[in-house]
Amino acid sequence: MASKTNIEKTMCIQSGAEKSTIEKLDGKNYRVTHATRRGNSRFYFSDNVQIVKSRAAACRLALSLVNPITAALFNGLCMNHTAKMKDVISFSTYCGLNPRCIERMKDGNSVCAACFAARQMKRQKSTREKLIKNTEIITASIYSPSLFPIIPGDMFRLEAFGDLVNDIQAANYIMWAAVNKQALVALWTKNPDVLWKGFEKIGFNKPKNLNVIFSSPRLNTPADNMRKLYIMPDGKPMIDKIFTVYTKKYIQENNIIANCGARSCRGCKRCYKKSTGVYVREILK
Ligand code: SF4
Ligand code: SF4
To answer: Is the CB of 12 under 6 A from ligand 2?
Structure first.
C-alpha cells in the first residue's frame, strides 16, 4: 500500500457540490476520490475512492464520476495556451458556428474580416472539435450554478475563439464567473445585446470578479458609445473596457499609445482588473 507521505495532488475537478480529486501515490498508482457536499454542509464527504494504474485512467475515471455537465465544461477548458495567454485558462465557443461571426467575416470593414481565430481553427482540427462541443453544451440550457467547475487557476478568459451566440450562453458565463471567486474573469464580446439579455434572464447581478470587454468591430475606432448604452441597475456600465485594434500607420500618425503589450496577459492583467483604465489599444498583428 502506498505511503501517505509521497502524495502529489495532480488535479481536482470541482463544482459547487462535488469534486473528483486525483492524487499520485508512490509507485505508478493514482488514487481517485469523489466527494460530495451534503445538504448545507461546507464539508465534502468522500463517497468513492479507487486506485488506478495510470494518469490517463485516473483522468477518465475522475471525469466520469462528476456530473456529466461539469465534466463536459471542465473538458472544454483550454489550459495549455502559449505566448500571450500562457497560464491563463479559457473556455470558448467556435466562431464558425456563430451566425454573427460568419456575417462579420464577410464585411471587409470589420476586424472580423481578418479573424485570427477562424484562421487558426482551420488548421487545428482537434481544438476546433472541442470548441464545437463547447458551443453545443453552453448554448443549449441554463445550468445550475453548482454544476460549473471551479477552474484550477486565478485568470479565466471567456471567449478566445468565438463570441456570444445566445442569451443562454451569456447567462451561463455570468454564473460561471460568479462561482469562480478566486479568479479574475474577462469576457470578450462584440455582442453586448446578447449579454444584456443574459443578465435579464438571471437577474442583473454582475459578479465583482467579472470584467466585460467590448471588442470594437472596426479598426482604429473605439466604440465609446457602447458603454453608455448598457447601464446596470446600480448605475454602472455593463461594459468595463473597450478593446480596439489599431494599424501601425494610424498609431504613428495620430500619436496613439498602444497599451496591450501582447506579450503576457498574466504579467499585464489590464483586461482582467477594473483599476487599469477603460481603453485597451492593441496593434494589428
Ligand atoms: S467576433 Fe471575434 S471570433 Fe467572431 S469573427 Fe469577429 S474576431 Fe472572429
Ligand atoms: S492588454 Fe494585457 S491583459 Fe489585455 S490582452 Fe493585452 S496583454 Fe492581455
So the answer is: no
- Among 281, 285, 147, 158, residue whose Cα is nearest residue 222: 281
| Extended strands (E) in 15-146 | 18-24, 30-37, 44-52, 89-91
Going from N- to C-terminal start, the domains of the chain cover 8-65, 71-283
Q: Which helix (H) or strand (E) holds 214?
A: strand 210-215
> Whose atoms come closest to the Cα of 93: which ligand?
1
The CB density around residue 183, as the number of other CB atoms within 10 Å, is 22
What's the CA-to-centroid distance between 39 and ligand 1, angstroms?
43
Longest Cα pair distance anywhere in the chain, in angstroms? 70
Q: What is the pLDDT of residues 207-260, one digit of tens each?
A: 999 999 999 999 999 998 899 999 999 999 999 999 999 999 999 999 999 999
d(CA 188, ligand 2 centre) in Å = 12
Long-range Cβ contact pairs of 20-29 (< 8 A, separation 24 or more): 20/61, 20/62, 20/63, 20/65, 20/66, 21/62, 22/55, 22/58, 22/59, 22/62, 24/55, 25/51, 26/2, 27/2, 28/53, 28/54, 29/2, 29/53
Distance 263 CA to ligand 1 centre (A): 21
Residues within a 6 A CB radius of ligand 1: 95, 98, 101, 104-105, 111-112, 115, 117-118, 162-163, 190
DSSP state of 274: G
Cell of 276: 487599469
pTM of this structure = 0.93
Q: Is any atom of ligand 2 closer than 6 Å to the C-beta of 280?
A: yes
